[in-house]
């Protein structure tokens, strides 16, 4: 089955990403960790059978390694004032592919091609809740139905529940619960799940410098 694998991403610019990791990390170290997370996510997407990787990007990419990875994907700019609006627009921007969409972020570097391929199997919709009460994955047979998210408040402990509520009227498959990376505790827990990843290496190097 062919599907769009939509990654919502922010350019890893110091001071603009992963600020909740500071302290103990510096802004530059947090950006390195964010870049590693994005690179691991793109790698998993590129290796996922049936996936057409699309990155909805906010900001200007300054790192060569991230630019190289993005060159292997379709890249669309994020549009909208709020994150909810940017989600709605990103889904609308990929309707031209005429495929169902599985949308994730850059904060779950532990995803694997097999997990993503499995999560793309759904009827009308799918939702993967996050351990902090948000969500990490959203599947939609019709990307335009992401318009239901426009008024959902994001980055709250009840965002996952409110998103599920907004999808009423659709048959929603429940995906596995994952932890996304917001805090140092999250980052350490996720790094333990993927010890050989870029993310784990970047976190270990940053943590060593921060001591």
UniProtKB/TrEMBL annotation:
<dbReference type="InterPro" id="IPR018641">
    <property type="entry name" value="Trfase_1_rSAM/seldom-assoc"/>
</dbReference>
<protein>
    <recommendedName>
        <fullName>Glycosyltransferase involved in cell wall biogenesis</fullName>
    </recommendedName>
</protein>
<dbReference type="InterPro" id="IPR029044">
    <property type="entry name" value="Nucleotide-diphossugar_trans"/>
</dbReference>
<dbReference type="Pfam" id="PF09837">
    <property type="entry name" value="DUF2064"/>
</dbReference>
């Amino acid at each position: 089955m062919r599907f769009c694998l939509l990654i919502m991403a922010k350019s890893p610019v110091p001071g603009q990403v992963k600020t909740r990791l500071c302290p103990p990390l510096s802004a530059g170290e947090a950006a390195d960790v964010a870049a590693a997370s994005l690179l691991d996510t793109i790698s998993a997407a590129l290796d996922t059978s049936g996936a057409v990787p699309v990155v909805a990007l906010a900001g200007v990419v300054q790192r060569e390694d991230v630019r190289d990875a993005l060159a292997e994907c379709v890249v669309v700019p994020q549009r909208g004032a709020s994150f909810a609006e940017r989600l709605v627009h990103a889904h609308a921007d990929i309707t031209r592919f005429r495929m169902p969409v599985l949308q994730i972020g850059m904060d779950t570097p532990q995803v694997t091609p097999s997990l993503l391929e499995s999560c793309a199997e759904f009827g009308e919709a799918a939702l993967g809740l996050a351990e902090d009460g948000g969500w990490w994955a959203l599947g939609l047979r019709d990307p335009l139905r992401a318009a239901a998210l426009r008024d959902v408040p994001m980055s709250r402990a009840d965002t996952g529940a409110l998103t599920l509520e907004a999808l009423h009227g659709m048959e929603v498959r429940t995906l596995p619960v994952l932890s996304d990376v917001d805090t140092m505790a999250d980052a350490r827990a996720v790094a333990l799940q993927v010890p050989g990843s870029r993310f784990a290496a970047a976190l270990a190097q940053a943590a060593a410098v921060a001591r």
